[in-house]
Batch of 3 targets.
Target 1
Amino acid sequence: METESANVFLSWIREIGPGAVAGIVYALVILAAGAVVSRMLVSLVRRIFARGKLKDEKMLIGLVTRTLRGVVLILAGMVALDQLGVSIAPFVAGLGVGGLVLGFAFKDSLSNLAAGVLILIYRPFRIGDVIDVSGTMGSVLDLSIVNTTLKDFAGPVIYFPNSQVWGAKITNFSRAEFRRSIFTIGINYGDDQNGAWDVLQKLINAEERILKDPAPFIRLSELADSSVNFQMFVYTKPADFGPLLNDFYARAKTALEEAGYRIPYPQRDIHVIERKNPPAA
């Protein structure tokens, strides 16, 4: 009995084995060819983009190459399954009904995909741009099929679903021609306000990072409790905005102190009223 079973198994191996092994080999060759073809196509697409007007559109190039690689590998996998004897006809036939079911199941992902396509078409930002999305500011690191990646200036990496980015207010600071800064500084009430005005104006004129157009200006903005406050409205290129914020107050303080002015601090006058003893009854 055992001999007959062994003979049947060996007979099955002789009949089916070579074809099965050949199918596995063919499937592996197809998968390897798919990987090679995907790399070649990705390289070709990158060269085409590099020669065209879209060579700086890193987000678009990345999305197209990732999508192309995925499509080629999926097709290679389907052909490999066919070589293994796995019929893909039911899978193709079920795409209609399955697509409807998947559409409901992955509606958020599809929404993110559609938003990503719209971002690529209208290009409100590019990789490397500094943007603000609903109050979150950072540098754009990447755009994938489903999310946009920002590097927050505080350090964390933030992933936004594309649908939330496209549906939100997007402020792109990198595309601005200039940025405005407002510096507030005070002097003592007893100091010469016109002289302080001249000191601050000379400081602005000597600062190379401050643009002459739009023209900067100074105004006396407030008679505060302990100081007379000036506001300086200045404009810089976007790249100079941060560096100017870092050191301009220190420069203004130094310039005023060298001219004999003091930066006031909060003061309070206290009046002591002496009460006389009431007359004796």
Target 2
Amino acid sequence: MDQQSVFVMFVLVAVPAFYFLAEHRTGWRMWSFLPPLLWIYASPLLLRVGGILPEQSPVYGGLRTYLLPVFITLLVMTIDLRSVVGTLGRGLPVVLVSTLCVIVGAPIGYLIVSPWLPAEAWTGYGALAGSWIGGTANMAAMERALGTPPDQMGLAILADQLVFLLWLPLLIVSARYAGPFNRWAKAKPLPFAAAEVPAEPAVGEDSDQDAEAKEETTPPPAKDYLKVSPMLDLLLMVAVTLANVALCAWIAARLPDLPPFITGSTWLVLLVTTGAVLLSFTPIRRSHQAEVAGIAILYIFVANMGASASVAGFAQAPAFVAGAFVWLATSASLMVIAARLMRTDLSLMAVAAIANIGGAASAPVVAAAHHRALVPVAILMAMLCYVLGNYGAILAGHLVRIVAGA
């Protein structure tokens, strides 16, 4: 047995376990600004630079190859798409328009800073689009689908975290200006607006605390899990997941490459996502073990990304991050214009925006700051964005590639 490989696997599993345990036990406010995800990525990178983890290991490539289609299947197939589409109602076109604004903003942001970036930077922006349309899992999928080099992946994660530090507070504070914005946009009132007055966040610490309290008092819809033993649930989950991955890999190997748009890896991501969507219409979506295992594997995958990342491209960080902020500003401006044209309430547009650039972990916080009745809708929007992410991010990445002339 290769002792070094066993040690590497131990570290990659122990790192996410340590940081989530630390967040759970300490409850420090630091985690709001420097979330576990950032540490889970950065720690293996620092351990490798410090010589504790090896520069090269078969574990890095093996986990990147095999874990990605597994956690995509696990996470997507547990989403109740019928419920998502049926419950969203008016929010469905809003979240789709918000996603489109993110896609359109990508090539514009890149174009502004392209003179200071290398030719392969378009793959980093494609990976960032994955996070901004769905979440971390989509970003990881784009690394493989677009062939993002490790240095560009590191820049994408860095930009994602820095932009989010501004984005989340901005959307929370926007609740204060819902009245004037809605009058300007001639927005149609939300169904529950007449029954209750939307909550206004306080300034400073109370704002975050109030949002967290509202999130806790308005739980997401309960999920009807499979009525089987955990062991049987786990066995079914493993069998179905591996069957989907194996079938999609077999089909992807037989489909022609369409360079530069679609390669074998792109086919695999698209097919696995589509297969998982189809599985979500079966009883397997009620698997509790699939839901839990998918999230756990995702964070192990993030740790592996950090361990195999390169620091060579960090000299490009200022330009890359500046382009991400231009991208965000462009997308936000397009969302404001769309809200006026669609006569959309600011609260609904803010929730759709955070469902894309933020995901399920942050959407309820912004929703609660605007109106607690939006919390379930925010969760459903985030789930829909996760499904759209692998499709929309590939489109955004190739729009950036066209602008880059690559």
Target 3
Amino acid sequence: MRNKRIYMAGVGGMLGEAFWKEFGPDNELKCTDIDVNAPWLSFLDFRDFEAYARDVETFAPDYLFHIGAHTSLEYCEENPDDAYLTNTLAVEHAVHIANRLDIPLLYISTAGIFDGQKDTYDDWDWPNPLGHYARSKWMGERFVAENIRRHLVCRAGWMMGGGRAKDKKFINKLMTQIEAGARVLHVVDDKLGTPTYTHDFARNVMLLLEQEYWGIYNMVCQGVTGRLEVAQELVRLLGREGEIEIVPVSSDYFAREYFAARPASERLLTRKLDLRGLNVMRDWRVCLKEYLRDYYGVAR
């Protein structure tokens, strides 16, 4: 994809950073967020429909990427109105704007929309969200799929990317503990899922856009796994197996801090990408090694 004008809304986080890096060299980007934490960002609150529409229309893009969302399950449970304003109604704004300009829309969904009653979920399994975060994302996904012809909905798993500055997820939480001197890590052994490297995700989005294969896609790294195995691989890649003990615990151990309902399994299958022959998502172990090398300086 070259010489395109792309408006990216809500790209101040870990995924947005990867989109900026992957799409930026060959395209003209307008990148916005409510948190202007990088020089390539400008301010926009996409919950403000008039401001959102005016900014996009002024830029006159070929594509609209709606990336941002409240991703803290606990925040969404405690602030459901803001969750739906941000994760659902703002997505409706994006749909209306894209339809007005007759341009394709990219929306990012999540593996969290499933209830975890099955071990794995492919692209055609029907979601059953457990809480306000998952429900707000699922309603955004539905509105996109039902109201704009040229749409791309990509469901991510356990995101990793962005490094110390932007990663608020599992890998950086572990790295923060380790870098602070922790010698014991308590890790849940009852949560299953599929990691998603932000750069692979952005590259696969680009491939689908180039081919104009619209629709809904599961887009996660290869290799289903669990929190415990990811932590063990992280410690191995750091060369700290003999120094750091990983203690398996149930989710109840973190119930006070992480009280929102989470599915036991968020394992996605990339069946649709595979059938189309358009899957460039690598094994999660390969991506974790690259992530640690590129963002944390881990040479092993």
